[in-house]
What does this fold into?
Amino acid sequence: MNHDQHPNDSVLTQDLRDSLCELTTPERPTLAAITTRGRAHQRRRLAGFASLGVVGAAAGTALALGLTGILGAAPARSTSTIQTMAFTLVKHANGTATLTINTNVLLDPSTLQSDLEQDGIPAIVNTGSFCSSDPSPAGFNQVTAAPKPAPGAPLDFTINPAAIPAGTELSFGFFKLANVQGSGHAGEETVIGLIDTNSYNCASTPPASGYANVVSIPGGPK
It folds into this structure.
């Protein structure tokens, strides 16, 4: 019996004690090693918290942007001005447009039609003819109002493209007349109305007053 054995121990107890005595016990780590491991563990924890903070900030930003898109005011529409010798087309921030026609300058219908379409105003423009539908589509008064200018003054139309019914477009006709509405003066007649894009006819004479809004400007022929 060795010095670690006790007379009252059983054989099993002695065997267990002998087995434990044979185990190799690692040396106690130095203070420097303990400090190094502690610092590394602390750095890993701080890095984990930083990652969570970045993810949380990104999620908060995404949520804020999403709410801005849903709840925020819609951005203002762009404005623009197209100016030629014959007309000026101003697009306003509220979506409407103002068309000013200089009755003393020859108008190029294709240029005006292209510029109107560029501003989101579907239209067909003619000189010496006018296109119309029978019956004329409803809603013209919500799209524009015919101006009542003084003789020789420019024509100003305020147009609301959003009010143009689906399947329709504006029709402009510009006529040079020898006798404007029996006035004895040469001049022009400007006709504007709504047409059905799938059903319309064009004529070389202006329609009778009352069919569409007709503006006659005596004097100042083109």
